[in-house]
Design brief:
The chain is α+β, with helices and mostly antiparallel strands. 16% of the residues lie in helices and 42% in strands. It binds 2-acetamido-2-deoxy-beta-D-glucopyranose (3 copies). Pfam families: MBF2.
């Protein structure tokens, strides 16, 4: 009986460790046939003590025509659960422009690879 409880506790602890160590990837929309990569950009920021870093990615660049966006994939390359957060604050899927806000966790940096697909 005692042994069973011990194993259960270990299993639960192990599971939460895995959950905590997850990467902060974000996937908006879905790719469709004949779409392609419209823009790819990597954002690297170092962490600063007790500070939250925040910045926006705008697509398309000023004066450029935007494609119809099908998917936005944000890959967290920092890992270890230290990665930041991504959200779409303007435009997005089914539109020809978007703004993606990237935000670090307090005191942590960020290393995001952002891929925007369109057709
Ligand atoms: C992709 O986006 C970045 C950041 O907005 C920009 O500097 C770059 O010129 C864009 N590249 C292409 C191929 O549109
Ligand atoms: C988005 O599409 C609209 C309607 O087709 C067009 O007027 C506008 O210039 C486009 N914007 C961009 C950023 O491509
Ligand atoms: C993008 O494609 C979707 C689906 O076909 C359509 O509803 C939408 O109006 C399109 N948007 C633009 C900006 O062309």
């Amino acid at each position: 009986m005692k042994i069973t409880i011990c194993f259960t506790v270990l299993a639960v602890l192990g599971f939460s460790c895995l959950a905590v160590a997850q990467t902060h990837n974000y996937f908006f929309g879905a790719r469709i046939p004949y779409d392609s990569l419209a823009n790819q950009t990597t954002v690297i920021q170092s962490g600063s003590f007790l500070r939250v870093k925040s910045l926006n990615i705008d697509y398309p660049s000023k004066g450029q025509r935007g494609r119809n966006i099908t998917a936005i994939y944000v890959y967290d390359r920092l890992g270890g659960g230290r990665g930041g957060y991504a959200s779409i604050t303007r435009g997005g899927i089914g539109q020809n422009f978007t703004r993606i806000n990237l935000k670090s966790q307090r005191g942590n940096g960020m290393n995001f690879q952002v891929e925007i697909y369109g057709r």
